[in-house]
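Note to self: the last two entries modelled the partners one at a time, which told us nothing about the interface. This time every component goes in together.
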Amino acid sequence: MHQKQWRFFKLFIAMILSAAMIVACGQKEEPTQAEEKVELPPIKIAVVGAHSGDLASYGIPTVRAAELVAEHRNALCGINGRKIELVVEDDACKPEIATSSATKVTGEGVNVVLGHICSGATKAALGIYKDSHIVTMSPSATNPGLTQSGDYPNFFRTIASDDAQARLEVEFALGTLNLSKIAVLHDKGDYGKGLAEFAKSFIEADNRGEVVLYEGVTPGAVDYSAVVNKIKQSEAQAVIFGGYHPEASKIVSQMRKKAMDTIFISDDGVKDDTFIKVAGEYAEGVYASGPMDTSKNSIAIEAVEAHKAKYGEDPGAFYLNAYAAALALINAMEKSCSTQYDDIVNALRSEWVATPLGIIKFDKKGDAIGVGFAMYQVQNGAYVEIK
Amino acid sequence: MNVDYFFEMFLGGLTRGSIYAMIALGYTMVYGIIELINFAHGEIYMIGAFTGLIVVGILTLAGWNTVAILVIASFAAVIWAASYGWTMEKIAYKPLRKAPRLSALISAIGMSLFLQNYVLLAQTSDFLPFPNLIPDFKFLKPIEHILRPSELVIYLTTAIVMALLTFLIKFTRMGKAMRATSQDREMAMLVGVNVDRVISMTFVLGSATAALGGILIASHIGQINFYIGFLAGIKAFVAAVLGGIGSMPGAVLGSLVLGWTESFFTGYISSDYEDVFAFLFLVLILIFRPSGLLGRKEMDKV
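The predicted structure of the combined assembly is written out below.
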């Protein structure tokens, strides 16, 4: 009996609370609705990417960048008087979730999409946006095929693709250093091998040089003396290595200890201070490509400061790329005075915009012109950009 | 192909093989005595290297001579890793000695993961530079580009360790007790052999050689991290099986054969298939000689 009374009492409390909530919500919404009658409908920007799971650290900086840019614009006058509204959707970097996220934001009538983050998820979602004529811009998907295949005219990105790095390395070796015999090595991983394959095909397509050795090494192997001997035997003037710094430092050290002065050129997996720390004196003179240094760009400094002020910490990966993408999208809609697909695409391709990555616009395929990699060299224990 | 190149590949394979042998000895000895595959053995090698790094760091700060540092760090690594081996046996294997063999095997895998993660937490996941402790002078003209002092030290150390172990097992009381235990544990117990002590001693000896291998290769390669024991441990295990697990000369022969196989495949075919061929080789040997190169049905196990 007593228990039954208690149950009724709980139900009663719950009813009162939910009623109060309905009232509260209603009160909150009323003024907004009143405002909207006067204002133009907002421009909706979808922000899709990994916001949960193990890759969240790649996606959340993009959301924060979009929030900061949108807040800043809304505080002025939005885009030509229209407020910006963000539609944030998580895809956990999984292609199968990305398609449903894409369908969902398309259904909500977003005007443009900022995202996705991972190449696989981006590729899965792009077809849906293409069918709905929605411009999509990724801050971080580097897979070359996304732009170069020509399958996705609605796709743009503010990061250089993987092959751009290989192209730069090859051009540097053949053009700047005037070398002709190159050994191409990789660590058999997706990233390293992909890069090495591009480097190999670029050298082969170029009549200035030849690939004298193309091989994969086993990461974590006890030593690399056999491969090092092979490089020596091949009489390569330079090694182009695709992979990360632990293997690179082992190979370089073993080469130098064998008194080989073969030039070593690598990628942004090696352009890391740990490489210099581990390889020590043997790191000296090693070349590596890496993203251009934009830390002195005034917009970049402002963007980082804004992040620190709002979130109390340094921004994470691809933050500046995402910031640049948000600015480029807004600029395109503003300059074209339109949210129509064709107008936005034309504006992206023709209007230069100042971003944290420098002043950029986009080429026909959708890659940003002005964003790219630079070559660095280890000089006196630090990476120095080669102009 | 020219002769120099062949010799370089030969010596590179010998370096690898020597390191595998230092680790494989521990696998084969432990298996010989208690028929357990101690999968945490690769981690002992890694701990040896880490201990070496810490001692080297302290002594370098104190400004000692590199050769003195090498000797002291090696002793420290050997003693510290041996104490890990001893403790590991007491904690993870002794309580399971009467349990089915699978339990002890799983306990070994657990121990391996525990030690990896323990070092990861206690130290760092980054690669750490390991200073070159062996003075890097040049040899005379014909072999100057082929052989390096640190490689020579590795060959010599391996040879000395082999000789000492062989002496220990053939001519000492402890060796006799080990041989007896490996042939028939219960019978050995009945005639008064302290089997527990023999087993502990086996773990201590195996761990000591692995640690020595760890510190030498770390100094040769110049870097370590918490994960280096995994691949080296697997390869050494394969080498031990290749030679005939339980047999000491077999472990050494298996290691050298594996080292040379890898080196020559890399040198004359491609390093892409280095592991593929090394393991294919293992499969073939096990098909045609199931007990390994030097293994016998009725073998002297230690």
